[in-house]
Amino acid sequence: MDHFWIVLTVLAALLQAIRTAAQRDLNKHLSTLATTYVRSLFGLPVLALYLAVVLAATGERLPDFNFSYLANTFVGAMAQVLATALLIRMFTLRSFGVGTMLTKVDIIVTAILGTLFFSERLSIGGIIALTVVMAGVLMMSFERTLRSGAPLAANDNGGNPLWAILTDKATGVAFGCAVSFAVSFLTFREAALVIGEGTFLWRGGWTVVLAILMQTVVIGVWLAWREPDLVTKLKPHVRKSVFIGATSAVGSICWFTAFALENASYVRAVGQIEVVFTLLVSALYYRERISFSEYAGIGLTMLGVLMFRLMA
Questions:
Q1: Rounded to whole angstroms, how far apart are CA atoms 68 and 89?
Q2: Which of 36, 106, 208, 237 is an S-S bond match for 256, by CB 3.0 to 4.6 Å?
Q3: Torsion over CA of 127, 184, 82 and 216, rounded to 10 degrees?
Q4: CA dihedral 180, 302, 102, 138 (to 10 degrees)
Q5: What does the mean pLDDT of the chain come to?
Q6: Which distant-in-sequence residues (6+ apart) come within 8 Å of 224 by Cβ?
Q7: What's the CA gap between 80 and 191, in Å, rounded?
Q8: What angle, 0 to 180 degrees and rounded to 10, lies between the N-to-C axes of helices 200-226 and 169-194?
């Protein structure tokens, strides 16, 4: 059970890559916020059923709804919505693979914010493994970002491709996405710690259901005001919306359970394997070419994930 969180995180990353690809397609027909809302609306029933099963199996009941728990869960829920919306926005600026990979600096942001402001404690082995994973992600994302159009921008910035990437609009959106994701991971982890005594399934189950419920209510009220015709627009896409909701729900269960077991920084580092799945989706579904250096980056990322099993 010591490393069960790794299995959960890999599964969560796979489901997130698949769900994000489906959201990209749905975003062609719905607004960015509505596309984000679909995962909460259609995922909530699955999560409620999961929590009911956990309660029946463990015999545990209501948690301690103290201020710290509610505040951390709410901040995490809203930060996750913002991060998802920014990620979907990325797809209008870059390809699917680039859009996802540009946001992966969240692993560094999570580690820094977690150490400074949260209860994250990183071991030497964990830091080494985290660094290896990040190197693999950078190896993949740098070339693909250049290939997506940054060289054109580089010609307008003195021919420096790195400067072109750093000053590109997509990079700003990606950084905002990364920070938002980092805040959500850390506050969800904190919520799972302050909820009270209970099994990791109970702590993760209650936190994920409450977070998604908050998202469903808050965004639902906003969309009812701003997009009153959303139900009509959604009807032709119910099947895809159900798929997004189901994959998101199962993925969220895995993420939140992993957060209840291990540091958010470690969970997110192992979660970088999503980049590997993203590249596969890009190649198989969107027909985007994978280069030799990207394959090398995949290998380095996989090595870093294995190091968490051996060193962290």
A1: 31
A2: 208
A3: 150
A4: 120
A5: 83
A6: 230
A7: 14
A8: 130
Instruction: Give the residue carrying structure tokens 């909460």.
Output: 40
Q: What is the pLDDT of residue 154?
A: 44
Q: What is the mean pLDDT of residues 218-240?
A: 93
Query: For position 161, what pLDDT does the model report?
Result: 53
Q: Count of domains in the chain?
A: 1
- Long-range interactions of 45-53: CB distance < 8 A, separation 24+: 45/245, 46/245, 46/246, 46/249, 46/250, 47/208, 47/209, 47/212, 47/249, 47/252, 47/253, 48/209, 50/205, 50/209, 50/249, 50/253, 51/205, 51/206, 51/209
Q: What is the mean pLDDT of residues 173-198?
A: 89
- Token pair for 250: 């199962």
Residues 105 and 179 sit within 8 Å (Cβ to Cβ): no
Distances from the Cα of 67 to the Cα of 194, 195, 266, angstroms: 10, 10, 26
Report DSSP state, residue 157. T
Half-sphere exposure of 114 (CA within 13 A, CB side): 28
- Quick check: 73 pLDDT over 70? yes
What's the rounded Cα separation, in Å, for the pair 173 and 163? 16
Q: How distant is the alpha carbon of residue 189 from its chain centre?
A: 14
Residue 168, helix vs strand vs coil: coil
129 contacts 301 by C-beta, under 8 angstroms: no
Residue located via tokens 């009220």: 221
CB 261 within 8 A of CB 270: no
Structure tokens given for 14: 């796979």
Domain that residue 301 falls in: 4-310
Question: What is the average pLDDT across 123-144?
Answer: 78
Could you read off the pLDDT of 87-114 as tens digits, one per residue? 777 767 665 555 556 666 777 788 888 8
Contact 103, 180 (CB under 8 A): no
User: Residue type for 201, please?
Assistant: L
